[in-house]
Write a structure and sequence with these properties.
By secondary structure, this protein is an all-alpha fold. It has one domain: Amino acid/polyamine transporter I. Helix content is 71%, strand content 0%. α2 packs parallel to α11, α3 runs antiparallel to α9 and α6 runs antiparallel to α14. It starts with a helix and ends with a helix.
Length: 504
């Protein structure tokens, strides 16, 4: 198997050397895009249809960044996975992965200064390293987003079924019935897709409302958890939770790769760069400022929330909770029906992250299609809603098909375990490439002073190296299904890449 994978990446590297030579003369990957216009009269799309420019400011970008990671969803779904992998060191994994991700955020922010682009990573990597690497950076995001439609909507479905189960005193086995879970997940995916298709303003308003409600519920859990269990914790807090010396290379890699899933989604702020207000001369881009504040708040929140989970719940309780860790915490802190508000926060958070991920997928596909790297039909913009509706429909359709396929798996946990690790691999790939693109583009700043060198080159370089290390180090540990999703998902990108070259 490894010989085939090596040959695949060797082929890609050989082709990319050619791309690097011709990149400056390539019209396909000009960072300044040419808006798509429909040529046929009578087409339902307007010839002047475009994305809704100037719709978002710094505050909306920050909200999108926070909502994109889905704080409540991430804690509810991924806590059981990361605790099973590294135990109490989950807190340290969250911290160090956050520092790695902060370096990636710096890289994205600096690259966004070149030119805000709906394709974000795809466009920037293509601009710096050539079309092949740019394509696969974008393709990695697309594959991760499609798989995420399963891992994200399933917790919303289980939370919904949990409310129904409690309300009507139904069998507890209902939330483990993969067929019912997949059906409810498909319903949620459909409803969210409709909201996203209707326009970016509708999406941002929905995100703001859901994020405020989610934040209130989560803060109530944090305060109650510290008051009730700090003096009688299920796990005694210690500085060893944070110490880098508590980790082995294996535990660090496994913990960090899982923790990446907590943070993924903030970069949607960059994919919405073309729909964000322009910065005044001399000021930072709103998308960059939004990403910065989103990242700072997320690192603090995830550390605090992980501490609360560990002091309130035992290992067995965390494992038994599976995708409903927040409900398990709330159930020990508040009487019924008040504990059900934790389920509500998970549902709202899940809706928020699915919404932002659809936005990220559709904008990336739109940009790749606009540059003729994918079929031009995916770049169609609705004349009224100003959204890439065809690309949005594609991720809905693929998500529904994957949910139907996942319904045949043995358990909800099996579905989530495979998808979370595969998504982590794809995140490491495309974000690592973006970090290297930033380093190469701004390498001259190594001579511009300590601050510029550290923020533009050294920190992004360290984050990029660690991203690739995490993905490659753990790849041999994946089971067959996870490997197929992770490596096979990237490899299949060769087909649309070659088709795109044929069309151009």
């Amino acid at each position: 198997m490894w010989q085939g994978e090596f040959a695949f990446f060797l082929c890609i590297m050989r082709r990319s050397l050619v791309d690097l030579i011709v990149a400056k003369n390539s019209r396909i990957f000009s960072i300044e895009h040419i808006p798509i216009e429909n040529k046929k009269k009578g087409d339902s799309m307007s010839e002047k249809a475009s994305l809704a420019k100037g719709s978002l400011g710094t505050f909306e970008s920050a909200v999108m960044g926070v909502a994109g990671t889905a704080p409540a969803f991430s804690v509810a779904v991924t806590t059981a996975v990361i605790v099973s992998v590294v135990g109490e060191l989950a807190v340290g994994s969250i911290l160090y992965c956050g520092l790695i991700m902060f370096g990636i955020m710096l890289a994205f922010t600096h690259l966004n200064k070149i030119s805000p682009n709906a394709g974000a990573t795809y466009a920037w990597v293509g601009h710096v390293f050539g079309p092949t690497w740019g394509f696969f950076a974008g393709w990695g995001l697309l594959v991760a987003s499609i798989v995420f439609m399963v891992s994200a909507t399933i917790p919303a479905a289980t939370s919904t079924l949990l409310i129904v189960q409690n309300a009507f005193d139904l069998s507890p086995d209902l939330i483990e019935d993969t067929h019912w879970v997949a059906f409810v997940a498909a319903v949620w995916l459909t409803l969210i897709t409709v909201v996203v298709t209707k326009g970016i303003k509708h999406a941002s308003y929905a995100q703001l409302i859901m994020t405020v409600i989610e934040t209130i519920i989560i803060f109530a859990l944090i305060i109650a958890g510290f008051i009730e269990y700090w003096g009688k914790p299920a796990h005694m807090p210690t500085w060893a939770w944070f110490s880098p010396f508590s980790f082995t290379p294996e535990s660090f890699a496994a913990g960090a790769l899982t923790a990446i899933f907590f943070y993924w989604g903030w970069d949607v702020t960059m994919n919405l760069g073309e729909e964000t207000k322009e910065a005044a001369e001399g000021e930072a881009q709103p998308a960059g400022r939004g990403a910065f504040w989103a990242m700072v708040n997320l690192i603090l929140f995830f550390i605090i929330m992980m501490i609360v989970v560990l002091i309130v719940l035992t290992d067995d309780e965390i494992s038994a909770a599976n995708t409903n860790v927040l409900y398990a915490v709330a159930d020990k802190l508040f009487p019924k029906p008040w504990s059900s508000f934790a389920v509500l926060s998970t549902i709202l958070s899940t809706i928020g992250t699915v919404e932002t991920q659809i936005l990220q997928f559709s904008r990336s596909m739109f940009a790749m299609s606009r540059d003729k790297m994918l079929h031009p039909r995916y770049a169609n913009i609705h004349p009224e809603w100003q959204t890439p509706w065809v690309a949005t429909f594609v991720i809905w359709l693929l998500g529904v098909l994957l949910l139907a396929a996942s319904s045949t798996m043995t358990s909800v946990k099996a579905i989530l375990d495979s998808s979370v690790m595969a998504i982590g691999f794809h995140i490491c790939f495309y974000m690592g490439l973006a970090a290297f693109a930033c380093v190469w583009h701004y390498r001259g700043m190594l001579k511009s002073g300590v601050y510029d060198a550290f923020s533009h080159v050294i920190w992004p370089l360290g984050s990029g190296v660690l991203m690739f290390f995490l993905g490659l180090y753990l790849l041999p540990t994946f089971d067959g299904i996870t490997t197929l999703i992770a490596v096979g998902g990237l490899a299949i990108g060769v087909v649309p890449l070659l088709l795109g070259r044929y069309r151009t």
